[in-house]
Design a protein that fits this description.
The chain is an all-alpha fold. The protein has one domain. Helices cover 72% and strands 0% of the residues. The chain is built from eleven helices and no strands. The protein starts with a helix and ends in a 10-residue tail after the last helix.
C-alpha cells in the first residue's frame, strides 16, 4: 500500500517536471551555466593532471563566474538595485588579503597542476571583478543602490574575522603574515554573503535572475571548497608549525568549520534557487534566510 502511494507521488513529481518546459523557461540560465561547464571541461583536459585538488581550482572558477554575472547584470540594467555593497566590500577585501598570501607562497595552492596558473588567475579575476562591481554600486549607479536596506555593515564582519584569524590560523606557509592573511580571507568569506541575503529578505519580492545566479555560484563554490578542505584536514593539523596559534594541531577543523558555516548560510537560498529553476518561477526571498 505504501509502495503504491510512493510510486504515485513520484509519478506526479515527474509529470510536474517537464524537461522541455524546463529548458524553455531557463534558456538564458542554461546558456550561462553551459558556457561555464564548457570552460571547465576545457581547462580540466588542457591544464589539469586530474588530481582531487582540482576541485579547489574549480571552486575558484565558479566563484569568479558569479562576479562576472553580477557585473553583466549591473551594466545591462544600468542599476544596482538589490545589490549589497557591504557584501561586495567584504569579498573585495577578502580577495585582496588572500592574494597577498597565495601569489607569493605555495602553502594554500591546489597541488593539481592548475594551482600555479588557473587557480591564481581565477582569484585575481575575482578580485578585479569584485572591486569593479563595488565601484559600480558605490559610484556609477549609486542613485539606484538601496542603501537603506543594506543594514548589515561590513565592519561587523571584517573586524571579528581579522581578530579570529590572528588567534586561530593554520600554518601551511609557516610565515606569520601570509598565514593570517589567508585565514582572514577564509573567515571573511564565511559571512560575506550575509548582508546580501539579509538585504534581499528585507526587500522581499522577486530576485533578479543574474543576482540569483551570482549568489548560487558562490554557494556552489563553497561546497566544492568544503570537500577539498575536508579531505585536507589531517594534513593541515600535521603541518601546524611553531608559529603561535590557539588550538595548535587542530586548526584544520577551524578551516573545515568555516566552510561548513558558509554552506549552512547558503543552504536555504540554494534550495529556493533549484526550486525556481525547476518550476520556472522567479525566485522570491519572502521566506528565505
Amino acid at each position: 500500500m505504501n509502495t503504491g502511494i510512493e510510486l504515485s507521488t513520484a509519478k506526479r513529481h515527474l509529470e510536474k517536471f517537464n524537461l522541455q518546459n524546463f529548458v524553455k523557461n531557463n534558456k538564458k540560465e542554461l546558456s550561462y551555466w553551459g558556457l561555464l561547464a564548457a570552460a571547465i571541461v576545457a581547462i580540466y583536459f588542457l591544464f589539469s593532471d586530474g588530481e582531487f585538488s582540482f576541485c579547489y581550482t574549480l571552486s575558484a572558477i565558479v566563484q569568479m563566474f558569479g562576479f562576472l554575472l553580477i557585473a553583466i547584470q549591473i551594466q545591462k540594467t544600468r542599476s544596482a538595485e538589490g545589490i549589497s555593497l557591504n557584501t561586495l566590500i567584504c569579498y573585495t577585501i577578502g580577495f585582496a588579503s588572500k592574494l597577498s598570501s597565495i601569489l607569493f607562497n605555495q602553502g594554500y595552492l591546489p597541488t593539481d597542476s592548475t594551482g600555479d596558473t588557473v587557480y591564481r588567475i581565477s582569484e585575481v579575476l575575482s578580485f578585479i571583478l569584485s572591486a569593479y562591481v563595488s565601484y559600480l554600486v558605490y559610484d556609477k549607479f549609486r542613485a539606484t543602490y538601496n542603501s537603506d536596506q543594506d543594514r548589515i555593515k561590513a565592519d561587523f564582519i571584517i573586524i571579528p574575522a581579522f581578530i579570529l584569524a590572528c588567534l586561530i590560523h593554520p600554518a601551511l606557509n609557516a610565515i606569520y603574515y601570509p598565514d593570517i592573511a589567508w585565514t582572514f580571507a577564509l573567515y571573511l568569506e564565511a559571512f560575506a554573503m550575509l548582508p546580501q541575503l539579509y538585504m534581499l529578505a528585507k526587500k522581499g519580492g522577486k530576485v533578479e535572475a543574474l543576482t540569483s545566479h551570482f549568489i548560487a555560484s558562490q554557494g556552489f563554490s563553497r561546497c566544492l571548497a568544503f570537500f577539498f578542505w575536508l579531505d585536507s584536514v589531517v594534513e593541515i593539523n600535521e603541518l601546524d608549525g611553531p608559529l603561535w596559534t590557539l588550538f595548535s594541531g587542530s586548526t584544520g577543523y577551524a578551516v573545515v568549520l568555516s566552510q561548513f558555516v558558509q554552506i549552512l548560510i547558503f543552504s536555504d537560498f540554494l534550495y529556493q534557487y533549484v526550486k525556481s529553476l525547476q518550476t520556472g518561477v522567479p525566485m522570491s526571498l519572502d521566506s528565505c534566510v
